[in-house]
Batch of 2 targets.
Target 1
Amino acid sequence: MRLTGSEIVTDILVREGVPYVIGIPGHGNLALVDAFRRRQDDLRVIMPRHEQAAVHMADGYFRVKGEPLAVFTSIGAGAANTAIGLATAYVDSIPLLLLIGETHTYMRGVGVLQEIERQHWSDMPRMLYPTVKRAWHIDSPVQLQRAMSQAFNAMRTGRPGPALVTLPMDVQADLVELPDAPQPRARRPHDRPAGDPTALQQAARLLTGASRPVIVAGGGVILSEGWDELRQLAEHLGACVVTTMQGKGAFPEDHPLYAWHMGSNATTCGNYMTTHADVLLAVGVRFADKAASSYKPGASFSIPPTRLIHADIDPFEIGKNYPVEVGIVGDAQAILAGLLEAVRALTPPRNWRDAPYTREIAEHVAGWWAQSRALRESNSAPVTMGRAIGEVRKVLPPEGIVFTSSGNVQAQVFQEMPFTRPRTYLAAGGFSTMGWSFPAAMGAKLAAPDTPVVALVGDGDFLMTFQELATAVQYHIPVVSVVLNNQGWQAIRDLQIIAYGEEAVYATMFEDGREPLTPHIADAARAFGAHAVRISRPDEIAPALEHALALGGPAVIEVMVDSSLGTSGGLAPGWWDVPVPGYFEKRREVYERERRDERI
C-alpha cells in the first residue's frame, strides 16, 4: 500500500469512524486538506472562522456523543490559536485529536514562514504541550500509523484528554510503502479499571455504617457513563447526592435524594449536606478551589471529621487536596458498580423515601429555592437573569441540551436550572473559558442533530466567538444562542463591589463615559444571515425561543437583563479566596480573618 502521510492520516480517521474534521486550510496543511478532498464521501470538513472555535466544536461534540473528532490547522498562528480550546478540553478531560502543520523536516531552523526557531528548531508545538495529554512529533510518514493509533488510545484511556500530532509539510506529501493498517480495535484496550477489591470492601463498610452519607459526583461519572450505577447506589444506601459543575446531570435534579451543589457559587443546601456528612464518597471529583470554597473548613466540606472515600481514574487526584480514609483508583462506572455489589452484600435496601434524612434534604432544598424565588418570578423589565433562565427551562424538553461558559450566566444556570438527564447540561469547567459555549453547542448539534441545543451566554462571552455565526449559517447548524446582555463583564464588576466596594468598579462595563455602549447583537446576527430578535420583557422570552427552535436554523435571542448588583447574578453561599489589597484596611482585616481558616 503506497500512500502519502496525509493519506495515512485520513485513512486512519475514516477507520476510526471520525465523521468530521474541523479546521482551516493554509499553506502548512495543503497536502492534508487535499487528502481530505479525496475522501470527502467518508469524511466531512467543517471550516470555522477561527481555530479556537474548531477545538470548542470538537469538545462539544464529544461531550454529547462520547466520540472524539479531529481538528486540523496550518503551521504557526493557526496552530497557536488552538491553545485556549485545548486548555479547556485538557482541564475538563475531553478527548480530541489535533493535527497541526509544521516546518518541512529538512527546513527546520532556517526560519521558514511561521516557524518559531530561536530556542529550538520548529519549536511552536512546545507551547501546546502543557494543554495536551500526549504529543507526537513526526519526522517520517512511516511513523504515522503507530502514532495515530497511540493517539487514539491515549486520549480515550485512563484520564481522557486531547492529543497532538505534528505533520511537517514534507511528511504530509511524501509517498511511502506500508502494510495494510490494522483495524482500530486491534490496537485498543477494552477494560475498565474497577478498583482494588480490598479498598472497595473498606469503602462499602464505611458507607453502610454511615448515618449521613453523601455522594459527590463529578465529571468522571459523566465521562464513564456511570449515572445508572450512581442512582442505584444512592437509593440502596439512602445517600444524599450532590454534584460538581462537570457532574451536573449525572443524577436527576428532581430526585428526593438530590441536594444540588456544593461550592463558593453553588447552593446553600448542597453546602449544608456536604459539611454535615459523616462519610463522603467522591467519585470523579478534583476538589477544585471553587467546589471546595477555597478549602475553608465548614464552608463546603468538613474533612476531617468527615471521612472521605475518594475514587478517581487519576491517582494524582486522590489525597491531593484532602486526606482520604479510602482511596480507590479506577473507572467511575466500574467503581460505582463494584461498590453497589459490595453494599448489597452487606445490607438490604433502605427505606429512604420516608426516612428523616430524606426529609432533611427536602427541607434544605426548599430553603434554597425560597431564597431565589423573588428574582426567579420577577416581572420587571429589564429581565432578571433568574426569570430568563426559568423561561428557557419551561420551553426546552428534558432532552434539550444547554451550554454555558464562564460568568454570571453559568453560575446562575448551575444554581437554578434543573436537569434530569445526563449530558444535557454542558459547561466550560476548570479553565473557565469565555467564548466556549456557542461553538461547543455547534459541535453538539453535529452530534445530536434532532435534539434542541441552546447556548445560554452573556454578551461578553458570545462576542468572543461571535464570528462563528458565519459557520453556523454556512453549514446550516441550527443552534439557538440566548444572549443575556448585561452590557459588560458583569461577574467581575459584581466581584469588584463585593470584594473591594462600590468605589472599585472600573474597566468592567461596556460604556462611553457613563452611558452603556454595546452592539445591537440581534442586528449584527441578522447581518450574518441568522434569525435574531432583541427583547427585554420576561413574557417575550418563551415565545421567542419556541419560534427560534421551530425555524430549524441558526438563531440569536438577545435578552436585555438587569445589571444591578443583587439582580445581576445568583447568590454566592460559599467562600472564595479573592485577595484584597492592603489599602482597603477594614476589608483586608476581614479577608485575612477569613483566610486564616483555609487548610491547603
Note: The CA atoms of residues 192 and 331 lie 6 Å apart.
Target 2
Amino acid sequence: MNEALPDVPEVRVVGLPQLTSGFDLVERLDLPMHLKVHGPLEPLGGEQLAQLAERINLRGRGGAGFPFHKKLRSVAESAIKRGVRPVVVVNGSEDEPACRKDTVLINRAPHLILDGALLCAEALGARTLVVGVTRESTQRSMEAALAERGLSNGRRSALRARVQRNPVRMVTGAAASLIRSIDGGPAIPPGRKISASKSGVGGAPTLLSNAETFAQLAIAARIGPERYGNTGLYDEPGTVMLTVSGAVARPMVIEVPTGVPLRYVLQLAGAPPVTQGVLTGGYHGKWIDAATVDEAIVSRNSLQQVGGSLGAGAILPIGQDTCPLGESLRVAQWLAEESAGQCGPCYLGLPAAARGLEDVLNGGGPAALEALKQVAGNVKRRGACSHPDGSAMFLESTLKAFTDDLAAHVLGNGCGRPVTGVLPLFEGGRAPTGVPGGGSEENGPSRQKIYVDWTLCRGHGLCADILPEVFQLGADGFPTVAQADVPRFAEAKAVRAVRRCPALALRIEEDTRAQAPSSRTNLPVLSQGRGRRALGR
C-alpha cells in the first residue's frame, strides 16, 4: 500500500532549474547561500509588479489558477479606496496526501518565497505578513528563515511577520480557513464566501496566494519577463512544480518547463508503460484515461483541453493491476472525512456520495449509478467552500474516465481486480502531525464515547448522516452500534448529532481513560527589519 509521502521526497528538474536552483549544492538554502545562488533583489513599485505578473501570465499555483496581477491590483484598489493598509499572506498549507511541492519549497528554498511576499508587501505598503503552514518541518524552516533575515529579534519595525501553524486538514488550505485562523478562529471556512482582496485578515484587503506563486514572482523579478519567457510555452511561460506519486517507482517533486509531454514526466518517475489512467491536479482534480495520456503536455490549458486539470500540481498514474473505481472509493471516503462538517453538501452529501460509489462497486446496478450521479451533482456550488465542488469533480471524472470498469461493476460481477491502495492517503484517513511519538490535539486518541439509548431510538437515521465516522445504519434502518469512541476530529459533529436527534436517544460521556490533551502555546509575533534588508539588500 502506498503510504503518505514524506515532507521532502526526491526532487528532480528537467532543463535548467529556476525554483530549484541550488538544490544540488545544499539541502536548505539559508540566506547567505540563497543570495549566492539567486543574487539580491531590487524592490518594485506596485504597478511595475502587476505588469510583471501580467506579462509572464502568472496564475496562482494552489489550484484555482486566478491571474495574480488581477489579485494584486484588486488588493491595491481596495486598500486605497478604504484608506487602510493591506495584509500579505503566504499559503503553505499543503494538506493533500499527494501534494508536496510547496512543502519542498518551504523546507529547501524558504527565502525565495519570502522574496516574492516581501516584494508584494513593500509594493502595496503592507505592514503585516503571515505565512500559513501545517507541518512541523515547514514551521521550523520558515521561522528560521525569518530569523536569518533579522525578522525575529523583537526590534520595532514597519512590518510584522509571523508564521501561523494550523492543523493538517484538507479544508485548512482554503483561503477563507487560513484567514479565519489568523484572526484567532478555527481553521475552517466561515460559512460565507467573501473576497479576501476586499476583506481578509482583520477585515483588511489581503493578498493571499500559495508558496510557489510568490517564488515564481521572485524569479521573474530577478531575471525579467523576457528571460522568464524563454522557458516553457509562449502563453504559459516558466516552469511548473509537480508532485508525482501513485503507481510509480520513485515518487518525486519535479520542476519542469511548461510544454513538456506528460508521458515524459511519468517515465522519469518510473510509471508503468501502459496505465489505466492518470489523476491530474490531485484529489480535487480530474482523471484522464490511458488513451489521452500521450496527448497531454504539462500546462494548464493543455490539460483542460484533454479533460484533465493542473490544479495543485499532483500527478498520479495507476497501473493495470488495481481496480480504478476501488482506488477512487478510498479517496472519496477520505474526502468525506475531511469535511468541515458545517454545511449539508459536505457533511451529508460527501459521505452519501462515497456510499453511493461503494454501492456501485458492490453490484448496486444502474439504479445505484444514477443515485451516485444525482448526489454528486447536488453537492456542487452549494457548499461553504470549494471542498464539495472539488470532491464532486473528482467523482464525476472517475465515472467518465473508467467506463469499461464501470460497466463491469454495474452490469456484471465487477472488474476482477483487487484494490491495492496505490493512491497515497494518510494512515487511517487522517493526516500525520509531525509530533514525534504521537498525534496532534485534533488527531489524538478519543476523549469521548457516544451511546445509543435503544429504549428511545426510533430509527430516524439522522445520526448516520451527521456522524458517518461512527454510525452506519443496518438493514432495519437502526444504528449498527450501541456505543463507540468519537474521533477527535469529529467531536463537534458528535455534539451536533446528540442535539439534533429527534428522539433524544444519544448521549456523550467523557472517556476518563483517555490521555489529557497536551497544551498548545501560541506562536510568537515576529517583526521585520527595513524593507530593503528584507529583500536581501
Note: The first helix runs from residue 31 to 38.
